[in-house]
Design brief:
With about 230 residues, this protein is an all-alpha fold. The protein is built from 9 helices and no strands. α2 runs parallel beside α6 and α4 packs antiparallel against α5. It is globular. The relative contact order is 0.15.
């Protein structure tokens, strides 16, 4: 098999961006958006995340087996990439656009349903995409380089989303009104949340919209779940 060019390797690596954007959105904004903006209780938000992740654990190996045995004139990976990518875009937008006027249980149902559908369509895209990386070359060193490019772009996208969001979607005046310690804590939190342990130990130091997201101290109200 001929050696891949740098352009081909990085073109493949771009495909990791949607997954990283979804991960960053769920880690940093989804729970905050539904609890602080839409008024969903933390318990129901966590329950929706639990059910969606449980389904994700079931669907991943199913889609992997399906992709390995799929046959078409375009190969076994490309049709699934297209089939998963298109609805993933619409569902990601729908995640942050629940209908107005719904009850708390309605918001819970929306979060649960959209999360499950989004994770499913992304699985249809991402599992074949990941498998394709090992099929681009039979050379060990080239496979390592391909994986390195994929992971690198994924981390860049995952770090860029919070930076862009806090630059363009959060008021500069709100940022400037935060104590210096709060700003440092906010930046540290987003670096840690992108790490392996940070995704498990992610702590939200937040208050409703209109108040500062992070304060210099940790009052009792900071840790209220509902």
């Amino acid at each position: 098999m001929a050696s891949l060019t740098g352009l081909e390797k990085w073109s493949y690596a771009v495909g990791n961006v949607p997954f990283s954007v979804k991960e960053a959105a769920f880690a940093n904004f989804v729970v905050f958006y539904y609890t602080q903006v839409n008024g969903l209780s933390g318990s129901l938000a966590g329950l929706a995340m639990f059910f969606a992740l449980t389904w994700d654990a079931i669907s991943d190996p199913v889609v992997g087996s399906w992709s390995d045995n799929f046959r078409s004139r375009w190969g076994r990976r490309h049709p699934l990439l297209v089939a998963g990518a298109l609805p993933t875009t619409a569902l990601f937008l729908a995640l942050f656009a629940p209908p107005q006027g719904m009850s708390e249980m309605g918001i819970f149902a929306w979060l649960l349903g959209v999360s499950i559908l989004l994770r499913t369509t992304l699985t249809v895209y991402f599992v074949p995409y990941t498998a394709m990386g090992a099929e681009l070359s039979t050379d060990y060193d080239q496979r390592t380089t391909i994986a390195k490019a994929r992971v690198t772009l994924g981390w860049i996208a995952g770090m860029a989303l919070p930076a862009i969001a806090f630059t363009f979607f959060f008021s500069t005046s709100e940022w400037n009104r935060r104590p210096a310690g709060g700003r440092k804590l906010l930046v540290l939190r987003h670096f840690v949340s992108r790490s392996r342990w940070g995704n498990s130990l992610d702590l939200y130091y937040g208050h409703p919209i209109g108040d500062s997201l992070v304060t210099g101290g940790c009052s009792q109200s900071t840790f209220q779940m509902d």
